[in-house]
Design a protein that fits this description.
Layout (H helix, E strand, L loop, with lengths): L1 H19 L3 H12 L5 H14 L7 H5 L4 H8 L3 E5 L5 H7 L7 E6 L2 H14 L5 E5 L2 H4 L3 H5 L4 E6 L6 H10 L3 E9 L2 H5 L1 H9 L3 E9 L6 E9 L2
Length: 235
């Protein structure tokens, strides 16, 4: 699994980037702009899945974990008014979540990498969900403490963790310290088995303030064992 990832992520991607003089993320965006329906979030999500399953692997949550079983299902159950995503990447899950939000609801998505942020912005706009999604660029540990005052967030109904795995635990602690979680707030963390977030699993599972459910799955677009962890904040 690791060898396949290294081949996909590093060697093949570097060669392709050099030949085409653009990043993989730019290629994903171009493919969407050329093949998806503008203003149709479902079409954008399906087109990214098609590209990543057929052409180049990418670290989106993917259709298996994104579909009815886990991400979509959780968003529909929580029906959030205010949602937070940590790690926008190309905007895939932001579009995926935004298409399920009720009128007047909003998603704040945080991206540290300026290149990814620029692509995610275009993806969100092309999908027609820019009225529901606000992209915040910068490190999560700087943005989380600003959410209440600067972005008028009272509490978060839903949080999707899909950024640096070593930030899952400190950011979960930070969300609590900043009083951004209420009783019933739902955290959903991707890739907890591969690449893995063992400290996060240990933290939420041992913490009496969280009720956890594990959803076994596979790494996006690959047959590698992975899982998504759902942690409900009990207050």
């Amino acid at each position: 699994a690791t060898a396949a990832l290294i081949w996909n992520e590093i060697i093949r991607e570097k060669v392709t980037n050099f030949i085409m003089n653009q990043s993989k993320e730019q290629r994903i965006l171009n493919f969407v702009l050329q093949n998806a329906v503008r203003g149709d979030p479902r079409s954008v999500v399906d087109t990214i899945d098609k590209y990543c399953s057929q052409k180049e692997w990418a670290m989106n949550v993917g259709n298996e974990k994104g579909n009815r079983l886990i991400l979509d299902k959780t968003v529909e159950e929580v029906n959030p008014s205010v949602a937070l995503e940590l790690g926008s990447y190309c905007g895939y899950s932001a579009v995926r979540i935004a298409r399920l939000l009720k009128a007047g609801a909003r998603l704040l998505t945080v991206e540290f990498n300026p290149q990814f942020a620029a692509i995610a912005r275009q993806m969100i706009e092309f999908a027609g969900v820019q009225d529901k999604v606000k992209l915040l660029e910068g490190p999560s540990q700087e943005i989380i403490p600003q959410l209440k005052k600067k972005y008028e967030v009272d509490t978060l109904d839903f949080v999707f963790l899909d950024h640096w795995k070593d930030r899952y635990t400190p950011d979960t602690i930070l969300l609590q310290e900043c009083n951004l979680l209420r009783k019933g707030s739902v955290l959903l963390a991707d890739n907890v088995i591969f690449p893995g977030a063992p400290d996060f699993l240990a933290y939420v599972r041992k913490n009496p303030r969280f009720q956890c459910t594990n959803y076994p799955s596979h790494l996006e677009y690959m047959q590698v064992e992975d899982a998504v962890e759902k942690a409900v904040f009990l207050g």
